[in-house]
Amino acid sequence: MERFEDKRINEALDLLNAAARDKRAELQAAMESKYSDLSSVVSAFAGTLGSRAADQYEAGKRKVVDMATDVNKSVHRNPWAYVGGAAVGATLVGYMLGRSQRSKP
Q1: Predicted TM-score of the model (pTM)
Q2: Span 65-74, mean pLDDT?
Q3: With left for phi above 0 and alpha for psi between -120 and 50, is residue 59 left, alpha or beta?
């Protein structure tokens, strides 16, 4: 930093630099305090969110397994209805895909 010829200006600049260093330390301490508070809130929220997500995953998994079990039992009780439904569905899909897209004159 360039020093001025006037001693009073240099003393004033030194005083300002010292005050800035003091305020910098105060601001840094305040930010660290606020950051630690924020960090604890975010980590608590993340833990809660993680447990909720795990609970929802398990509930969804149970529902899918229950539905698959119900469908399996239903197919085993009456397989020909499902075979016929699959045949009708395949016929409809084949008909839709096999139609000509050109208009006939």
Answers
A1: 0.43
A2: 93
A3: alpha
